[in-house]
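Appendix B: complex inputs.
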Amino acid sequence: MQHAIDVHDLVKSFGDKTVVDHVSMTVDTGEIVGFLGPNGSGKTTTIRLMCGLLTADEGHGQVLGYDLRTEPLKIKREVGYMTQRFSFYEDLTIAENLAFVARLYHMKPANEHVDRTLEDLGLTTRRNQLAGTLSGGWKQRLALAACIMHKPRLLLLDEPTAGVDPKARRDFWDEIHRLAADGLTVLVSTHYMDEAERCHRISYISYGKMLASGTVAEVVRDAGLTTFVVEGPGLERMAREIEKLPGVEQVAPFGATLHVVGSDEQLLGAALEEIGSRPSVTVAHGETSLEDVFIQFMGDATDNMS
Amino acid sequence: MKRFFSLGRLGALLLKEFIQMRRDRITFAMMLGVPLMQLVLFGYAINNDPKYLPAALVTTSQDHYTRAMVSALELTDYYRFNHVVGSAAEAEALMESGAVAFIVTIPADFSRKVDRGEQAQILIEADATDPSVASGAISTLGTVASQALTRERGITPAEAEAGGGLDVVVHRRYNPEGLSQYNIVPGLLGVILQMTMVMMTSIALTREQERGTMENLLAMPASPLEIMLGKILPYFAVGAVQVAVVLTTAGLLFGIPFVGGMSLLLFAVFIFVMALVLLGYTISTIARTQMQAMQLTFFFFLPSILLSGFMFPFRGMPQWAQWIGETFPLTHFLRVIRAVMLKGADLPAVAFETGILALFILIYAAIALMRFRRTLD
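Resulting structure:
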């Protein structure tokens, strides 16, 4: 089967700063791939490279079967790109924004497409409302509707759910899965772990470098981390104590428990033995979460913010 | 007291303001550039008493009286006879196209009449579309010409007084009453169009960038040419309305004569507006914010008003300032519109200036399309 995205060794620098550093990625048709990484890690830049908004300094590949370097216009026609910031016209009404998009993509008759989209959105009654007056959740739904109006084969979403309430997020992801079931390929960047877990596969990028790729289970397994859950009185004090122990790489409070994470199971287990022997303190093996893995990745990577 | 005013808090605000000022290079350049530009322009370039104005001499004889007249007029520094023609029709064409500001006609029987002691006549026709240009030159005329003739005849002023003397006939062409509105109002059409067209289009792209809609627009399949035309054509319509308003008002309120062809005028306006909206669009490809776009527009606007011949006589400026003036579309448009509206010039007479306006279109469009970034890098 043809890959929707098949790019290799993409490099993009701004000035002397390499933002995307030999990133390769393959995404199958109909797959939902989560794109994760800390702020400033190159997620947005990578997505922009793929939809032709930026030109790569190096690298090659195909998006939807079109060459990334020579056929950016063809890619643009079949890709839907939803930007991080709401980027439709706030001083146009909902219907006017949709009509603008419909006409740009030569969708005829534009009015019918607009009406149908409004109906799907449930915004028919508010069609004449200015887009700028919509709430965050509705803006996001409008933006998504506008991005998929022209029936793209690939949907690129850049942190689509930032600042959106849980209900709207849930609806949003249901919609994404519905679209993917119909054969649409989705690449979505996010900071939310629960969203990452709703993806078929995830890719983790940090400071321009792709660090891990695979299903959530694969990524967690490959990280090779061990997690212990510590429970007991005086968690605060205990956390400071545990931090100093050999083999401990992360200590994070979760409610009434502490998650202690390390990559050397033997060393970590030995270090926690003493703590576990204290009265009314329990130390048990826990499940390593995706978040633990990401925190680990972030700690390992050298800071690139400057 | 600290509740209402604290030096510390004021200091924090001032410091922040200065830092922002320094970051915004274009604003900083404006703060230094505008006063400097004004000083230089007002100080050196602008002169309300223009000298060395091009003039045509219409004469059929080359006798010593004629030569004396010509050299006397040139000595006033107002006239520069760079065209000597044999017929009035040739001189007429020169004035219509704006190549000369004066036509001095010395009749064939001039020297005969002077020798006989009869009253001799010379005719001076001035292009009075800009009354201030002609006034200085005309006011010195009578005395200088008479004195020169008296000297040449070798008689005393008293004798000359008694004899036939010299009759200098002055015609203020196109604007016999010397009304400055005749000059200003057609020019205003150019200035108004320039102000609105350039300013409106200069924020065209920067607004999309500031609101974050540019990213979306670029991700959709629109070509740079489509985006450019989509941005400028609406303002074209605005320009058309302005032209209609200004021309109607010029006729109704100011009674500006309109002796030329309407279609030729509209053709010239069309080309001028096209150049303006493209200039504005070019600015918007350079500026990063709407604020910067406005400042760049203003930066362009100021010298173009001062140096185009709108406010001050073009020929009164030193050569370097005239060269700068030539680089503004407004300068060329003013020549065309004044020629067409006031002098009734036809297409051949304004073809050259119109051609230059068209050249601006090509230059601006090329720059804009080159500067436009189809991508975000």
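The mean pLDDT of chain B is 84.
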